[in-house]
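Hello again,

I reread your note about wanting to compare the complex against the isolated chains. To keep things tidy I'm splitting this into two emails, and this first one only covers the full assembly. Below are the input lines as submitted, including protein chains and any nucleic acid or small-molecule components. They are followed by the predicted structure of everything together. The single-chain runs will come separately.
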Amino acid sequence: MIAVLAGGVGAARFLEGVVQVVPGDDVAAIVNTGDDVQLHGLMISPDVDIVLYTLAGIIEPTQGWGVRDDTTAVLTMLQRLGVDTWFKLGDQDLAVHILRTALLRAGARPTTIAAQLRAALGCPVRVLPMTDDAVATHIITPDGAIHFQEYLVRRRARDTVLGVAFHGIEQARPTAEVLAALADAEALLIAPSNPVVSVGTILALPGVRAAIAGAGMPVVAVSPIVAGAPIKGPAAPLMHAQGFAVSALGVAQCYRGLIDVLVIDDADRALRPAIEALGIAVVVTDTIMRGPAEKAALARVTLDAARHHAAGTHP
Ligand code: FO1
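Full-complex prediction:
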């Protein structure tokens, strides 16, 4: 079994490659829920949904979130009714949030709801929310702390970032399913997701780092930063605020002590010695996932790195 720590769009695309190389049932995606947000009385879990929709083949491909060819009749009416509709929710996407909210109100766990959605939508990998407890990522700005979605979507990541806070993280616990996946995994892959607010949230859950260390499997991360810039999203100001360089070396610094191997892009080849000096092995490859072939190739290289590391045959 392969476990993958996952955020949203980058992770979903990486997982599309993984399922070309490993049977989907052998893959457990452990997904960040710190981005979850409540709007219009509905519980929205963007990263879980992005992974589900992408692997089920119904994602809107350009933006990387929402359902392909979705309509916006509900949002248009909400707007007419005077509701602030800064977060774009399509009609089919809303159906998922309505079901999730109803099931939560009836007492279901986010983990079982994700499993139900996975089965209904036809997602090949197991999708495990990192926790069933409420965790909310807040971005600390000069105007105060704001929810991550407010920072990213409503305010378009324009605020100065002073820091990051994961509300509720001390009381939250990884689920039994997450701990079992980590214990059983022959390799742990860290998808090319934001190391601060996607993977960082999962790692901040009490017990996760200890579970990874205790399992002793090879841990291989793929850098989401290529040539000094993230492929997508607001990683740069968030990494900078946490004192990390915005580079593949900064990603290595984020994951120091946790990962065995970092997969970096050809463009960052020159950073290899500095990363190796942190005690992290380096694999250099093309990490830009343009299409299915590149996604599969990146997954293969990452899994091979894990196998080589476990066998002590790292090239
Ligand atoms: N991102 C945006 O930039 N604008 C949106 O209006 C927006 C709506 C949205 C609706 C459902 C969903 O699952 C995701 C959505 N996202 C939107 C993406 C999302 O907020 C972020 O990309 C992730 O939270 C980052 O991992």
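For quick reference: The chain has a mean pLDDT of 97.

B.
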